Amino acid sequence: MINYKLLTPGPLTTSRTVKEEMMVDHCTWDNDYKQITQKIRAELLELAHVSPEEYTAVLMQGSGTFGVESAITSSVGKDGKVLILSNGAYGERQEDICRHAGINYRIQHFPYYETPDAAVVEQILQEDPDITHVSMVHSETTSGILNDIESVARVVKAAGKVFIVDAMSSFAGVEIPVADWGIDFIISSANKCIQGVPGFSFIICRLDELMKCEGKAVSLSLDLYDQWKGMFDGKWRFTSPTHVVLAFAKAIEEMKEEGGIPARSKRYADNQKLLVSEMAKLGYKTYIDEAHQGPIITTFFYPENCNYTFKEMYEYIKARGYAIYPGKVTEAETFRIGNIGEIYREDIEKLIAIYKDFLAEKNA
Ligand SMILES: *Cc1c(COP(=O)(O)O)cnc(C)c1O
């Protein structure tokens, strides 16, 4: 079996012990299993810095997009209107979600290398009183930019609107004081910074806003309110991804052993900085400037007069133990390197050594 580590933003490289949890076929209706689900839900609230009196965590089958779609469609419903702030493909995906579900929306585009500006949001909310919800991405994995959700939250809350955040690739990899910032719905998934395997997403919901979702969903399986109601004792409404849930419970445990979000976010940030400084020495510049660059994934430009393709570079690196990622920004030729998952300083050092060999071979 080929073995390489993933320098991609999820699925990512997980520990052997997380994978080993999946060697058990667990039944879903008994108390053991329900307790595992309930423990996960409680721990997610802790990671979000919210109290169970004010918030609840709902687990949703499917990949991250299912969670975003569930939160937007169930909370905005047919009567509301959502303002989407977009500076990347995941913001654009929210528009796609609204189009498919027939949900009223307005989208405000920002360049991929700029963060959404709270002053612009404030202006739009003043001129368009029909808007009931504001939705945005925290870490735009398209580019690696880390958006300033705190400043946007301030104007959204001042205007009395509901705030939805796709924190898929940042939750637990970057501290997010969800209650302090007034986020009503925040979404992430099992296979990002908590370092589980893919199979479900989760939505941390402010309870009073979740209550308002009753009967609003436009989809049966993605009905956030019904999923929550059904999950009150830890039983999932429809078949749950049991192996993934067991792996996720273990991943949370390992995250605590590492030292929680403070230790994990430091590891990610240190490795990202090392990556950028070493890549700079080899002539690779970043697409996002340092002030806005997040610690999750980095977009690099190809150097001038580049004499190799992504495919050549990818195959060379993969054969030596690491999988990198193609670029996704639309207006420039780029590639991406993620550093979340079971990736340590020595992995970045090894990757840089591989790059040096590759460039020497190419006479680049
Ligand atoms: C990974 C990711 C998603 C979810 O994508 P899926 O392919 O559905 O898992 C959504 N938003 C962001 C910002 C992501 O990084």
Structural description of this entry:
This protein is α/β, with parallel strands linked by helices and 364 residues long. It folds into two domains: 5-9 and 260-361, Alpha-Beta Complex (Aspartate Aminotransferase, domain 1); 16-256, Aspartate Aminotransferase, domain 2 (3-Layer(aba) Sandwich), CATH 3.40.640.10. Helix content is 41%, strand content 17%. It contains 13 helices and 14 strands. The strands form four sheets. The protein has a seven-stranded mixed sheet, with helices on both faces. A three-stranded antiparallel sheet has the order 11-14-13, with no helix packed on it. A two-stranded parallel ribbon has the order 1-12. Helix 5 (118-127) runs parallel beside helix 6. The longest helix is centred in the last third of the chain and has 22 residues, at 260-281. It is globular. The mean pLDDT is 97. The chain binds pyridoxal-5'-phosphate. Pyridoxal-5'-phosphate (PLP) is lined by residues 9-10, 63-65, 68, 90, 137, 141, 166, 168-169, 189.
